[in-house]
Amino acid sequence: MLRAIRHKNILPAFSAFRAFSSSAKEMTVREALNSALDEEMSADPKVFLMGEEVGEYQGAYKITKGLLDKYGPERVLDTPITEEMALICLLNILQAGFTGIGVGAAYYGLRPVVEFMTFNFSMQAIDHIINSAAKSNYMSAGQISVPIVFRGPNGAAAGVGAQHSQCYAAWYASCPGLKVLSPYSSEDARGLLKAAIRDPDPVVFLENELLYGESFPVSAEVLDSSFCLPIGKAKIEREGKDVTITAFSKMVGYALKAAEILAKEGISAEVINLRSIRPLDRSTINASVRKTNRLVTVEEGFPQHGVGAEICTSVIEESFGYLDAPVERIAGADVPMPYAANLERMAVPQVEDIVRAAKRACYRSVPLAATA
Amino acid sequence: MALSRSGSNLLKPISPFFSCAPSILSRSISSSNDSITVETSIPFTAHNCEPPSRSVTTSAAELRSFFRDMALMRRMEIAADSLYKAKLIRGFCHLYDGQEAVAVGMEAAITRKDCIITAYRDHCTFLSRGGNLVEVFAELMGRRAGMSNGKGGSMHFYRKEGGFYGGHGIVGAQVPLGCGLAFAQKYSKDENVTFAMYGDGAANQGQLFEALNIAALWDLPAILVCENNHYGMGTAEWRAAKSPAYYKRGDYVPGLKVDGMDAFAVKQACKFAKEHALKNGPIILEMDTYRYHGHSMSDPGSTYRTRDEISGVRQERDPIERIRKLLLSHEISTETELKDIEKEVRKEVDNAISKAKESEMPDPSELFTNVYVKGFGVEAYGADRKELRATLP
């Protein structure tokens, strides 16, 4: 009888917990970016958006949906594009002109958010990103600061070929004066984009087209309009003790899947979501490697002079004595992105590549006869 | 072949101040603020707009200040030439002597709330926006008293408080940036305009037309000013451009061709352009001007043009001489007074150079300052990262 009463008392509490967890919000990355833009535009009238199809078309990927209606054409600016625009077609019209205009507006004190349809097109405007934006604060000894955000999809999509698939993280992150951020989850997308817009320096914000539609749980804190993530801090997505895996953007998801597989084979992987490529959170990475003694870096971009190369060197410089195995690098293949589906698959890191590298780092290339 | 073809065009317009003599003599009594009317050397040539009048209102005070300011600029640039040859200035040094009327005339038509952005031939524009000589020479010599603390150099002068946004090394980049400034002015409802200056070399750049298209679409208060000194480095304009009528290159954007060696023509054109831009969006001004020096100090400037051409322009069209003649004919100043001003100006420049020489090189810690506005305490490294690291504030 007593047991029954106790059971009765306990049950409501459980259902209350269940009620909380079922009302935990989920949000797609697209919604996260859209809400971040909306909130920052609402909070600061100096923030405005510029890019191809961001206005009337609601954004090539619908990231800017609804913002034209809410804030009007003075603050959401469509830059010119040709008639042949189709839903999935990617165009690279007139990048240098409007990027330069955005930087000039930032010189005057406005806070532009310039969208590149993909970062492949940023190469046409890269002079303005590097020479006009990144270096101005230094060259003018602090007179001309450039509070601008350059955002858009980065890296490989699916089947778009060599000219539309490059990852630019390493190129931009090598440049002093720039900050380079790359979100993975919706929480990342919201917190990092808000931080980028509020930051007084030029920020390159590398999104991923294939992540836009993915849903992630978000807490009430994340949904609050004051939510912001710090720039320069990585996040430990999954704690572990045997091997550290660093990744950013879409590769974080792959690394987490790899960690699941590794766990079944008795390898506990710690997955670090870099979030910030420049400044790079060297202390979190090194602290993790000092704990696990093994490192696998993962990125989509080309391997030579890549993000992994910098991480590897940082660890060798700061934590050499702690390494029990050579650092492993997983990166995109050292070739222009092929179109054929099977070749494309080989040109981009897959989950099994990360698993294989982690096992090599743990001297477990050949599965052990008996596991615990 | 090339040289003889271009030579004759450049000596026009011949400055026929004699032709405006009648109106001058009738106003020979002049106190400082009495208004004087002068005629520009030639009428303006317009594209898709009605040109402004050739008659420009001025005053004795303005005439005197034009003379002094241009004499100062001329002296400053010549002094920079010597400093460069003495190896106190390093790297690039692009001198503006000959083009002073553009800087001075423009400044007379606008306020410090209007913005100016230009390329690398920026010393005189910086001065006209309120900069001082010590800052100029110190920056040229890489000392901490320079306006960019010695970290920019000749091509990276800025004076944001004076509405001067630099100072840009990449040819043509400043034009979209200038349209961005104009965008921001319109966005902020400032009722001010931006003058984005570029040369005949940059006039063929794609990004210029991209930016102009957007400026026209969005009615931005942007004035594109082509300082046509007829040579893009060593390439004469007729070899570089299919159409060197730069004031017409905006097509649907109106334009005006101006004698850039006549400070009053420049003043009138800029005043006209400002009014136009605030109401109707972008306009192009082509300033027909000339640089006495080569493209930079590494260019003697005589391999692609004749010395006769250079001295011819100096004799017929020099901007300072034009003002001198006006001052004399209006009996505002005497020969001696003007010579005294020139001596004064020379001394001012020499003093500024001495003062600038006293300024020290920037402190080594300046290597790491102003990388970011907000560095979040991240580390930056020197060549040997184990030897030299710094925390960015």
Q: Number of helical segments of chain A?
A: 14
Number of separate domains of chain B: 2
Secondary structure: number of strands of chain A? 14
**What is the name of the CATH class of the largest domain in chain B?**
Alpha Beta
- Annotation, overall tally of beta strands of chain B: 12
What does this structure look like?
The complex is a heterodimer of chains A (372) and B (393). Chain A has a seven-stranded mixed beta sheet, with helices on both faces. Chain A starts with a helix and ends in an 11-residue tail after the last helix. In chain A, helix 10 links the parallel strand 10 and strand 11 (269-273). In chain A, helix 2 packs parallel to helix 8 (186-198) and helix 4 runs parallel beside helix 5 (126-134). Residues 1-21 and 81-92 of chain A have low confidence and may be disordered. Chain A has helices at residues 2-22, 29-43, 67-71, 95-108, 126-134, 136-139, 169-173, 186-198, 220-223, 250-264, 282-292, 307-319, 341-347, 351-361, and strands at 25-28, 47-52, 76-79, 111-115, 149-153, 179-181, 203-207, 215-218, 235-238, 243-247, 269-273, 276-278, 295-298, 328-330. Chain A is an alpha/beta fold and 372 residues long. Chain B is an alpha/beta fold. Chain B has two domains: 35-361, Thiamin diphosphate (ThDP)-binding fold, Pyr/PP domains (Rossmann fold, 3-Layer(aba) Sandwich), CATH 3.40.50.970; 363-392, no CATH class. Chain B has helices at 2-11, 21-25, 60-85, 100-109, 123-128, 133-140, 174-187, 206-217, 237-240, 263-280, 307-317, 319-329, 335-358, and strands at residues 35-39, 45-47, 55-59, 115-117, 194-199, 222-228, 231-232, 235-236, 255-259, 283-288, 379-381, 389-391. A six-stranded mixed beta sheet of chain B has the order 2-9-10-6-5-4, sandwiched between helices. Chain B has a two-stranded antiparallel ribbon with strand order 1-3. Chain B is globular and about 65 Å long. The chains are: A alpha/beta (372), B alpha/beta (393). At the A-B interface, helix 4, helix 5 and helix 6 of A face helix 7 and helix 8 of B.
